Amino acid sequence: MPIMEIFSQGEEIVTGQTVDTNSAWLSERAVELGFTVSRHTAVGDKLGDLIALLKEIAQRADCCLCTGGLGPTSDDLTAEAVAAAFDLPLAFDEIAYRQIECYFGNRNRPMPATNRKQALLPQGAIRLDNDWGTAPGFAVRAGRCWFAFMPGVPSEMRGMFSERVKPLLSERFVLNPSRLITIKTLGIGESDIQQRLDGIELPEAVQLGFRAGIDEVQTKLLFPSDYPEEHMTTLTELVAARLDDFVFGIDGLSANTGNLAAVVDQLMRDAGKTLGVIETASQGLLAAKCPGATWLKSAAFERSLSALGLRFGVDVEENDLAASGVRLAKALQTQSSADFALVQLYAGSPAQFEDKDRTIILYNTLLTRDSLQQNRHDLGGPLGRKQNQAALLGLDLLRRHLQNRKI
Predict the structure, then answer these.
(1) CA separation for the pair 360, 134 (Å, rounded)
(2) Domain spanning 3-172 has what CATH number?
(3) What pLDDT, on the 0 to 100 scale, is given for residue 311?
(4) At 137, is the secondary structure helix, strand, or coil?
């Protein structure tokens, strides 16, 4: 597979003022196309460093996607660096200049003289028109490498890559895209996943990887383009079986499932059920993760209790959260006429819940027309993390019930 590098330019990147989301986004697209991404590099606004890096990449990579440094100010040095590194003098591009003028004209704004700089492109470069901003991109070949230079503004970069760069990549490279299968889990960490997968002998051609995020942990299987479909499915099912009820979705085999909230939304729609919720620990975040969910009848905790004629700290006994959860779920189901009632209760005061050094005990109660299920979890960390974990664990309890999984 062709070797690709991702190169980001800008002082704000190397100093940490801006998170480089461009590189991650471009890497995903590149792997999907069939490239091997070998490294990411970031360089500040120093002409000498830019020139040196460009010369290095030209000798070791087949392709390089570059972002940033195409603006009109003195610290935007990409075109100048390319010209110096590869002996390609800057030349004025009349079409690029007219496009920049048109951008300002459409907004009834005069074009500053400094924007003329953006129409100076390395001699012989392919201009990449920018329909999303002022900075045109450009592409050149130097050494063994084909370079594409795009703006650093994410919305402009993504548009230019999708509409201008991607078609050129398909023309210039023989690409055999790998197949990425992603098994998504909640409630199990990377080390436990690795332990469960011990003993599975993966073929040498298959790459195994993990990615831990805020809302899920992903187990990734990367298959070569010519890997037999039947064997791919069998291996994926074997890995998923080892992870058992923690798996809430698999992407890459057929249709992508989306995040946990999307999975639950589809399950609830398919079941034709409605849900009433009392959120304490998640404090409305569970409902916020399901925008447009017509099956969800959510209410703020204090308002819900008031409507049920109950008072927190009096009627809700913190030393018996399981029993209190059942009581509230029955009252909520009656009041809301929902098919299911989901109630969150946690042990401890609101001050303890907000304390990042305190762990609180969360009880989830799910009452349906013919079953009652409860589970207990320890939540730690800052307030936002506790809220998010509570929302996810509530949704996962619902998901497990709908999929007949172990609670």
Answers:
(1) 51
(2) 3.40.980.10
(3) 47
(4) strand
Specify whether the CB–CB gap between 277 and 293 falls below 8 A. Answer: no
pLDDT-based confidence at 103, cuts 50/70/90?
confident
Alpha-carbon 321 to chain mean position: 35
Domain covering 261-402, topology: Maf protein (3.90.950)
The helix (run of H) or strand (run of E) holding residue 271 is helix 260-271
- For the record, the structure tokens of 61 come out as 């990579």
d(CA 29, CA 162): 9
pLDDT in tens, 246-283: 999 999 988 788 999 999 999 999 999 999 999 888 98
> What does the pLDDT look like over 123-170, one tens digit per residue?
999 999 999 988 899 999 999 999 999 999 999 999 999 999 999 999
Nearest by Cα to 133 from 90, 162, 112, 104 = 104
Question: Which residue, among 281, 275, 301, has the nearest Cα to 369 in the 3D structure?
Answer: 275
Query: Per the structure block, which two tokens stand in for 180?
Result: 């990425």
Q: What percent of the chain has pLDDT above 70?
A: 95
**Percentage of residues of the chain with pLDDT beyond 90:** 70
**Residue 229, helix vs strand vs coil:** helix
DSSP string of 296-318?
EEEEEHHHHHHHTT--BTTTB-T
Residue with tokens 């993504």: 158
Domain boundaries, the chain: 3-172, 179-257, 261-402
Alpha-carbon distance of 95 to 101, in angstroms, equals 10
Burial label for 82, CB within 10 Å (0-12, 13-18, 19+), is buried
Phi, psi of 309 (to 5 degrees): 75, 30
Looking at the domain 179-257, which fold is it? Alpha-Beta Plaits (3.30.70)
The Cα 88–Cα 84 span in angstroms is: 7
DSSP-based three-state secondary structure for 125: coil
3-state secondary structure of 207: strand
Q: pLDDT band for position 298 (50/70/90)?
A: low
